[in-house]
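TA notes. Do not distribute before section.
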Amino acid sequence: MKQRLLSSVFLLSLMFLLSGCWSRHELNDISIVVGLGIDKVGERYKVTIQTVNPSQVSAKKGTSTNASAVITYEETGMTVPEALSRMSVKAPRFLHFSHLRMVIISEDVAHHGISKAIDYLSRNLDMRTDFYFVVARQSKASEVLKVISSMDPIPANNMYTKLDTSDKYWSATGSMNLNYLLQALGARGKSASMTGIEIIGDKNIGDQTANTQFVEPITLLKYAGMGAFKKDRFVGWLDENDTKALNYVQNSVYQTTGFIPCPGSKGNITMQVIRSNTVMHPHLVNELPEFDVNVRIEQDIADIECKVDLSKAGIVADIKKLSDHKIEDLISESIDKIQKSIGTDIYGFGDAFHRKYPKAWHQIKDWDEVFKTIKVHVHVDSSLRRVGTILQSVDQITRE
């Protein structure tokens, strides 16, 4: 009897510890934020948010088809959270950030340093860490957020899926979420890099629903290269080839496409990379850091536009040799270019050297200065998996 009484008292005491849904927000009382843009106006931040218009994305009938599926609000403040708080006089509902997909940072903010601008994002418990960061190239972050997409009624979702897809199948972009960004900003042996986004076409039409009524939209958002950072400050742009080389070195290539000249004839052969793996080996040579970058690639032949017969002996070996040299030159030339023009280690050589040689690492005062002079040897080993159902080009077959 006493045991039952004690159990009852214990269970009742536990009920007082249950707080219930103390932080709940009803759906009718919140605005779902999917995009956030940060610009600089003098010494103040101009913050733009993109929220979902529930009446236009719901399945209810009778809604206006001319209304936008999203609504943007802008406000300025000395800090990002102050600007967001000021929006309460404009936004009719509580701003809810758990579904945030994209954060766009202007070049101006990036030049001044992004650490202060993103501090609030790293502390806010309502935010997840899976949203992506991009840099607005030759435009304001607010302008990027206002471009309406014809494929997805919510532009931030369109930007997110476009970057995710491009990162997996083209490798000339890179998806940077909050966790990876904070790690890169806090590391001594690796600098951050962030994909750039630019507006193609007429900016004045991009924020109108009329932009969605054309087969070929007047205004588009396009990912273009990557921005390199030194600590938290933007220092320069990487072009398409530099971005591909960066992804190869960082072991971030999933699939991509390239071409090589045809062996012994005019034209090109398109190679489809289906798998890639990179291992970085640091060495101390005469007490100086050197690196071997070993890249193993599996690829298919996607297209042949010349007179090549794959059944002949030596042709596959020639294709492999040309492909290996093409990627080796791509990576080596890009690293040399970044060492001379940008001078910050976006590849992570310093991080790899730190892990293998901690004592030598602690004797280095400024790794970026050392990075400018290190020797990097690139080795590519490709293997051809599939050549398709025919051994000659279609053009060659039709001419015979």
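Switch to the second chain here.
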Amino acid sequence: MHSLLVIVPSLRIALLGIAAIPFIYYSLALLSSLRFFLAGRRAASTAPAAGEFLPPVSILKPVRGLDPDAYANFASFCRLDYPEYEILFCVGDTADPALPVLQRLALDFPTTTIRIIIGSGRQATNDKCAKLARLTDEAAYEHLVINDSDVRVQPDYLRRMVAPLAAPKTGAVTPLYVPTEVNTWVQRLQEAGMLSEFYPGLFVAKELDGVKFALGPTIATRRSYLREFGGYAAIENRPADDLLIGRLIAEQGREVVLLPDAITTVPDYQSLGELFFKRLRWMTVMRHMRPAGHLGLIFTLGLPWTILALILAPNALIAWSFLGGYLFVRFALTLLVGQFGLRQRGVWLNMLFVPLWDALATTIWLASFTRRTIRWRGQSYAILNGQLVPANGVTPVAAASAPVER
């Protein structure tokens, strides 16, 4: 009986110690986030006047279907304050609903060089990479800016994205991103997750290991840098192409610059279910690509450990210390990234959703262990040895390769 009385309190103390580990991570996240934004502001204050480095640029946009506000998104790229650039679109076939929108765009902006290409001409499970492989070959210029179809930009977009490439050590540039609007509670929930979890995680990774990733909404680089590792053709059967591009460029000994100045994207989810499965797809991919890192996420999820601490706490002081500490660091992180860093309005409204987001993130992390496949653009894929494999065993047929004139 005596030994049992000793073991149980010892186990409780051990579990309370483990429950405190997320606070170490959150402290690192706060420090990393603050250092990132302060360094960005110092760099901005000492940067040379804009406009000194303005090489011609090819903007590459793989397209499949229509995102919300697609025409407005595409049109924003036709109003850029930049001396010489072209926009290359690639759609899978002539039945794609985006094609009429792109043709209208070319008619509405006759002074902008727009080329619409039909099909990648390749067989690949990652349709986006297959399209980008062709777009890279078709591009007229060495400097490339690759972005998703849900991105909407300001006139100075290209100047900001290309400027860091003037440094010989810079291999790629990728910016943070924020939504064009936050109108629904689901969008507010997603924004809470971005500010309190996703971006702090990036800043911690940068602090510990440097930037060895890129973000899909925009990647600026040189064609020659992509060719050093085989370009998009080398990863056309792999998931998480944006992360891989950043990693492969970094492995060539080049620096990936993470810009603190955010661009905007249009939310592509309308319901909690859509948001859940979008994040579950991403988390499942991470489990396959970085299994140890994915498992380690358990110590970045503060909510379940705080609940455990509340259950095990021997007195009210310890219980309130865990709960108050959890709420303080989570709200402080959200304010630091959202208001101080990204200068977003209404961040305090996001704070109310942070515990709900943490509950959702914990559920998604647990659910990712049960997933054998991911679903993307209406098709299911398995991930085997880091490769995307159609779940139905059917390899996609290569799309046509004929360009469509403006």
